[in-house]
Design goal:
It is a single chain. This protein is an alpha/beta fold. It has one domain: NAD(P)-binding Rossmann-like Domain (Rossmann fold, 3-Layer(aba) Sandwich). Helix content is 40%, strand content 18%. The protein has seven helices and seven strands, in the order βαβαβαβαβαβααβ. β5, α5 and β6 form a beta-alpha-beta unit. α1 crosses α7, α3 packs parallel to α4 and α4 packs parallel to α5. The chain is globular and about 45 Å long. Bound molecules: NADP nicotinamide-adenine-dinucleotide phosphate. NADP nicotinamide-adenine-dinucleotide phosphate (NAP) binds next to α1 and α4.
């Protein structure tokens, strides 16, 4: 099992979990392409990643641009979707429906279109790895919308694994990970203290799960929780 010489596209691969996944995949010998919406983020990421990695600016909520991206792309082996925005925490007793709907745009609707646009591009043995989150299983107050997005990802992973077969479809379910997603001032140490492993996750911890699911030819419909035991406490 190896992703050496395989073509891997990481959408959202310019920051946090996606950037670490792109770095690990490239270090494992894969040919990696990263994309995200901000050209400066793409340029900065390419400066940090191995020289073999290429990248492009692509707003995943722009369906025409996503269709054009995949139409121009050579066949690929693996697609990873880590694109996400800042957390949408809203009070369920004073629900802001516009914010709730917006929370689904990138992680759900843009993903649905992306999968559709990419579906004809996979070489045999190919896979798609999505990103969900332990909020689906252990939500806190204010998390009804964010947890619902994760629950939708869980269901979509299983459904696509059936519908797109033989393309394998899996998801990584991170707990709290140190990335720019969290608001400034978020207390990572306090969040880590309460966990069985005594710390929060680093992007590299989570990247290993994506590479495992790309590599593992018998995994489909799998949702791999990597949360330091946070769903248990
Ligand atoms: N960090 C955690 O604790 C945690 C826990 C559970 C789940 N997750 C999920 O894991 C995923 C990755 O999160 P992260 O923590 O790595 O976040 P991050 O560091 O903020 O990275 C998010 C990535 O998404 C890209 N992006 C945002 N809007 C986009 C758009 N419209 N089109 C294309 N790319 C876009 C960003 O680049 P641009 O700004 O250039 O577009 C960036 O590369 C998210 O879905 C997040 O919800 C994170």
């Amino acid at each position: 099992m190896s992703i050496q010489d395989q073509r891997v596209v990481v959408l959202g691969g310019t920051s946090g979990i996606g950037l670490a996944t792109a770095r690990l995949a490239a270090g494992s010998g894969a040919t990696v392409i990263v994309a995200s919406s901000n050209p400066d983020s793409v340029e900065r990421a390419l400066g940090e990643l191995p020289a073999s990695v290429t990248g492009t600016a692509l707003d995943l909520t722009d369906t025409a641009a996503v269709s054009a991206f995949f139409a121009d792309l050579e066949p690929i082996d693996h697609l990873v979707y880590t694109a996400g925005e800042s957390l949408t925490l809203v009070d369920a007793r004073a629900m802001d429906l516009d914010r709730a709907r917006t929370a689904f745009e990138l992680r759900y609707f843009a993903l649905l279109h992306t999968v559709s646009a990419a579906s004809g591009k996979f070489r045999p043995g190919g896979s798609i790895t999505l990103t969900t989150g332990t909020a689906a299983d252990r939500p806190g107050p204010g998390w009804s919308v964010a947890a619902s997005v994760c629950g939708a990802m869980d269901a979509l992973t299983r459904s696509l694994a059936v519908e797109l077969a033989p393309i394998r479809v899996n998801a990584v379910k991170p707990g709290v990970v140190r990335t720019p997603l969290w608001p400034e001032g978020f207390d990572y140490e306090a969040a880590g203290d309460s966990l069985p492993v005594g710390r929060i996750g680093e992007p590299e911890d989570i990247a290993a799960a994506y590479v495992f699911l790309m590599d593992q030819p018998y995994a489909s419909g799998s949702i791999l929780t990597v949360g330091g035991g946070n769903v248990l406490v």
